[in-house]
Amino acid sequence: MSVHMSCEMEVPEPLASVELLSRQIMSGGYDLNLFASPPDCNFLCSVCHGVLKRPMRLPCSHIFCRKCILRQNTCPCCRKEVKRRKMVQVNKLRKTIGRLQVKCKNAEAGCLVTCPLAHRKGHQNSCPFELMACPNEGCTAQVMRGVLDEHRQRCQEGGQQRCPLGCGATLAASEGEQHNCYRELRDAWVQRHERNRTLLLSLLGRVRRVHRTTNFIRKQLAQLGDFLEDDSLLLSSRAQEPEAEMWGVQGE
């Protein structure tokens, strides 16, 4: 697919610099410096002169970045009216551009990785040269992801200390003046008291359940004993009946 480039007029160097800066700010396309090798000229937008981002084709067949062309009322190449409802996304071209090799945005910091444009964000999420904010409270440092754990450990150890009065609390540097040992110990006692109370109530509940179960088993055993006793008496009375009949026959 080809994209027609507009002719450029020669302008004084200061004006050219201003124009270039303005174009970079308003650009809807990808910066050329992002790519590992110069992209094909057919992949360039004639409005921002960057690599086409979310390319859209007009009915006149000219292709531009979506962001660039939505600012226009007429086609920058042929001056035909731009009708948004007739624009078409060029997904095939978008996928082709997505396969172009790009440098990591942290290349100047030392990252040598190149990857397809479509995978660039995925790499940034794991790049060891990406700047990360230290998560420790009170620390405003920005450090590379690869050394963040080391910095965080050092920062945490340097920024925290035990209470010098011996209450056992671990304090950040910003908490020293507001720290109150009595309040710290009272809060710790209240938390422990509530925890012990919860454990005690749980144990009492279990003891009650065991007591009810024991009483139920005791009643069942008593009923079983009564049943066995009645059954034994019944068997013994039946055993005595034949003997009585035999004695009655012998007496006759």
From TrEMBL:
Q: Which Pfam families match?
A: zf-RING_UBOX, zf-TRAF
Is Zinc among this UniProt entry's keywords?
Answer: yes
Q: Where is the TRAF-type domain?
A: 123-167
- Do you know which InterPro entries this protein is assigned to? Znf-RING_euk, Znf_RING, Znf_RING/FYVE/PHD, Znf_RING_CS, Znf_SIAH, Znf_TRAF
**Which keywords does this Swiss-Prot/TrEMBL entry list?**
Metal-binding, Zinc, Zinc-finger
Domain SIAH-type intervals: 99-157
Which chain segments does UniProt annotate as zinc-finger regions (TRAF-type)? 123-167
List, alphabetically, the PANTHER family matched: RECEPTOR-ASSOCIATED FACTOR, PUTATIVE-RELATED, TNF RECEPTOR ASSOCIATED FACTOR
Q: Where is the RING-type domain?
A: 45-79
Q: Which GO terms describe its biological process?
A: regulation of canonical NF-kappaB signal transduction
Organismal lineage:
Eukaryota, Metazoa, Chordata, Craniata, Vertebrata
Protein name per the record: RING-type domain-containing protein
